Amino acid sequence: MAEPDTRRSRNLVHTDPTDVTLQDALNALADPVRRSILRECAGEPDFSRACGTFDPPVSKATASHHFAVLRAAGLLEQVDKGARRLNRLRQTEFDARFPGLLALVLTEGTPPRTGPAADTGRPPQADGAGSKAGPRVITWPSSTPRDP
Q1: Separation between Cα atoms, residue 68 and residue 77, nearest integer Å
Q2: What is the pLDDT of residues 29-81, one digit of tens each?
Q3: Distance CA 26, CA 24 (A)
Q4: What angle, rounded to 10 degrees, do the helices at 22-29 and 32-42 form?
Q5: Stated pTM of the model
Q6: Is residue 28 left, alpha or beta, with left meaning phi > 0 and alpha meaning psi from -120 to 50?
Q7: What SS3 string covers 31-71?
Q8: Cα distance between residue 87 and residue 141, in whole Å
Q9: Secondary structure (3-state) at 85
Q10: CA quadruple 2, 7, 18, 87: dihedral, nearest 10
């Protein structure tokens, strides 16, 4: 049985991620509170986490604003279930629009991989060059002339 349409739920506007500009996405992801909300949503099943169960370091009104910004940027989908507003991270849809961007946010704060399996983004050095070299020292020519 479908939930009755309430005035509160009719005010929910969900932006399709394909309609979001890169600037809007970056603006939404710029705030650390919003990024923490996304990371918490990523670890939960769809529509299992209500807005009131988050504990951001901001007032309730400011938290509501953050949820609205995330919804407007196509990052969250919300449904009202009784007095609770449940959230779903729109990861698949957002990744289709901005591949890799959300992954950066979701892995923020995790320690970088180390060891031989870590991908440094650089080709391996076959001769060991640069592996144990100290800092590179650059000397500038003297501006005073030398005696012959």
Answers
A1: 10
A2: 999 999 999 999 999 999 999 999 999 999 999 999 999 999 999 999 999 99
A3: 5
A4: 90
A5: 0.69
A6: alpha
A7: CHHHHHHHHHHHCCCCCCEEHHHCCCCCCHHHHHHHHHHHH
A8: 63
A9: strand
A10: -60
